[in-house]
């Protein structure tokens, strides 16, 4: 019912977690999907997507991925800017500053490069292609942290907030060319990709619980009483990719089971 058959999409970070699920759901809807991710062999994958090795932080790599997609599949209709990294570090703890909790400058630059520069470069390259045919959709995967701010994740929150600001600005620039730009802001989603020990430690500290008590605590803080399913994110992205969402642009959709309203 979404009418997505035959469309061409790029999903960045589509090799795992949320991106992989978005890829599979778009494939189910008849979309030709290029997965742009760091490690893998170029070519057709077993799920039916086409893998292109790409580093979203590198303009040459991004431009090549977009032009190769158009060369191979004829157009680019949907960009899902999903690749992201999170290296949480608390600024201080109850006892005062703890040096091991400080975010290094290198990690700061790394998160900004992947989460903020990456989507910018991809949107830039993709919009140029979309302008040629006068339509397209760009979907940016932000985070609830980008709307609310998350303790221990100040740099991550800032990069995800930047994505929301890009979304608003691009929607204004590109609307007259029939290119929609939207963002989604997931809350706690059942994926382990970003859940490093440091992530869990920072979250547990913020919530005043032990790392072992985290999942019970998650559930208590979420009105729907559970983490989000990967399929629930993929369903929202598929809908937003389609013409069913033709009057939606510039908006960020919070999808957090009621944990926040965004
Ligand atoms: P994940 O770690 O499972 O997947 C991220 C993917 O991005 C990986 O396949 C990785 O290889 C790829 N990637 C990383 N750096 C890249 C680069 N430089 N170039 C190309 N690809 C790169 O993470 P996930 O949990 O599926 O998260 C996906 C997105 O959703 C991220 O943007 C994340 O910030 C956002 N998000 C996740 C959650 C959650 O609870 N998991 C919540 C809110 C937002």
From TrEMBL:
UniProt cross-references to InterPro entries, sorted A to Z: NAD(P)-bd_dom_sf, Sc_DH/Rdtase_CS, SDR_fam
Per its UniProt record, what PROSITE patterns does this chain match? ADH_SHORT
Q: Which family does it belong to?
A: Belongs to the short-chain dehydrogenases/reductases (SDR) family.
Listed Gene3D superfamilies: NAD(P)-binding Rossmann-like Domain
What keywords is this UniProt entry annotated with? Answer: Oxidoreductase
GO molecular function per UniProt? sorbitol-6-phosphate 2-dehydrogenase activity
Organism for this UniProt entry = Metabacillus niabensis
Q: Give the E.C. number(s).
A: 1.1.1.140
Q: Which Pfam families match?
A: adh_short (PF00106)
The record ties this protein, via PANTHER family, to: 3-OXOACYL-[ACYL-CARRIER-PROTEIN] REDUCTASE, SHORT-CHAIN DEHYDROGENASES/REDUCTASES FAMILY MEMBER
Name used for this protein in its record = Sorbitol-6-phosphate 2-dehydrogenase
């Amino acid at each position: 019912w979404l009418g997505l058959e035959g469309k061409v999409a790029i999903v960045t970070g589509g090799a795992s977690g949320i991106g992989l699920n978005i890829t599979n759901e778009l494939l189910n809807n008849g979309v030709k999907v290029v997965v742009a991710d760091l490690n893998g062999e170029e070519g057709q994958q077993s799920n039916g997507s086409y893998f292109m090795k790409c580093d979203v932080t590198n303009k040459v790599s991004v431009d090549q991925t977009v032009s190769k997609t158009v060369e191979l599949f004829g157009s680019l209709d949907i960009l899902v800017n999903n690749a992201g990294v999170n290296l949480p570090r608390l600024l201080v703890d109850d006892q005062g500053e703890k040096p091991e909790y400080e975010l290094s400058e290198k990690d700061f630059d790394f998160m900004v490069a992947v989460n903020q520069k990456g989507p910018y470069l991809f949107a830039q390259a993709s919009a140029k292609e979309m302008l040629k045919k006068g339509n397209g959709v760009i979907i940016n995967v932000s985070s609830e942290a980008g709307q609310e701010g998350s303790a221990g994740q100040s740099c991550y929150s800032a990069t995800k907030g930047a994505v929301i600001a890009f979304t608003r600005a691009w929607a204004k620039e590109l609307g007259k060319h029939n290119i929609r730009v939207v963002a989604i802001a997931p809350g706690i989603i059942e994926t382990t990709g970003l859940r490093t020990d440091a992530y869990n430690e920072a979250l547990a500290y913020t919530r005043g619980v032990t790392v072992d008590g985290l999942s019970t605590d998650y559930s208590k803080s979420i009105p729907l009483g559970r983490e989000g399913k990967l399929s629930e994110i993929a369903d929202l992205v598929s809908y937003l990719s389609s013409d069913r969402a033709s009057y939606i642009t510039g908006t960020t959709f919070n999808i957090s089971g009621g944990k926040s309203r965004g």
